Amino acid sequence: MRTSLRLGAATALTLLITASAAYAENIKIAYIDPLSGPFAATGTNGLHQYEFAAEKLVNEEGGVLGGMNFEIVAFDNKISPKESLIQLQVAIDQGIRYIVQGNSSGVANALTDAIEKHNRRNPDNRVLFLNYSAVDPALTNDKCNFWHFRFDAHADIKMDALTDVIAENEDIKKVYIIGQDYSFGKAVAAAAVSFLGEKRPDIEIVGNELHPIGKVKDFTPYARKVTASEADAVITGNWGADMLGLGKSIIENGFDGPIYTYYAAADGITAAFGESGKGTLKLVAEGGDNPPDKEKAQEYIRAFKEKYPDGNLSQSRITNVVEMLAQAINEAGTADDVVAVANKLEGMTFSDGLWSGELYMRPQDHQLIQDVHIYGHTDVEAPFDFDNSGYGLKIEDTITNASADIDTTCEMERP
After folding, report:
1. Is the pTM of this model over 0.85?
2. What tens digit of pLDDT does each residue of 295-314 get?
3. Which 3 state secondary structure label does DSSP give 31?
C-alpha cells in the first residue's frame, strides 16, 4: 500500500511539473475588450476570432520558436478606460507581454499612455500594445509611441477613401454627419468636413452632431433630424449597438440614400438590417473579396463557422495581428524581449498571410498600410454571409495601399 501511494504521488508530481512547463511555454496575449454590457456581442466575437486565429494559424502549425503556443487571455473592460487600466495591470502582473485591444479609441488612448509610462519605469518588464481596431488618428500622430502598433487603417485614411467615392457621386449635394461623442466620433466628423471641403466644396454639410456613446435607447429624434435636413447621404463612425440603433431608425424614418459607415456589419447588425440595408449601407474596411480568392481563407471561414455557428469573421485584421506577431517573434528569436519583437514588426512587409494583399507596417508611426475597400451590404451565400442571414458585404471600390503617403506628426522616441 505504501509503495503504491508513493508511486501515485510521484506520478502526480511528474504530471504537474509537465503540465506547468507546457503552460509556462505558452506566449500569453491579453485581450482587453468588452465582454459584458451593450457592446458585449462585438467584444465576444472578437475574442473568438483571436482564439481561433491563435489555434489555427499558429498552434496547429507548430507554434513559434520551435513549439511555443499562443494563448489568448480574456479581460473584460466593460468598455471603460478606467476598468481597462485595472485589467492592464492585472495582465502585466500575470507576466503577459502582449496586449490586444480594439473597441473604443477612448480605451486605446488610456492604454497607450499607461503602457508608455509602465515601460519607461519598468525596462525589464516591458509590454507591447497591438491595436487592432481603435482608429483615432492621434494614436499614430501626436500620441504615437514605440510600444503601440495599429493594424487597422485609421479614421482619416478611411475617410479619405470614403470621400473619394462620395466626391465622384454627383447626386450627393447634402451630407449629414453623426457619431458617438468621444475621440473617435470627433475624429470622423473632423475628417469628413476636411476631406469633403477639399474634394467637393459644393457639398453642403446639413448636420454635424454627436450623441452619447452606448446610452441612447431610441434614435428616432436623431433620425428625424436627418430626414428633415433633406440630406442625400449620411456619414457615421458608429459601431456596435449604436450603429444598429442609428441606422435602423434612419431607414425606418424614410431615408433611402447611402449611409457611409465604418462598422455596419456582423454582430447582429447585418441580420437586423437584412433587406432594408441593400443599396443603402456602405462600409469602409480592410479585407478582400467575398468569398476570398485564397482557398485557405475559404477553408478557414468554414472551420470558424463550424466551431462558432453564430459567430462572424468580420475583422480580417485580427488574423493579421496574430500572423505578423508570430513572424516577428520567430525573426527576433525571442518572445520575452519585446523591443526585439517590435524592431521586427517595424517596417515589416507581409504578403503571405491568410488574406490577399500586401501589408506594410510603416516604421515612422507604426501605422499599417494596406488596401482599403468600400463594401456594399447585399445578398451573400453562406458561409460567407454574416449572422447566418443571407446578407453580407461585397466590394464596390478599392483604394490600393490607401494613404500610403499620408502625413504623420509622429515624433517617435525609441528605447
Report:
1. yes
2. 999 999 999 999 999 999 98
3. strand
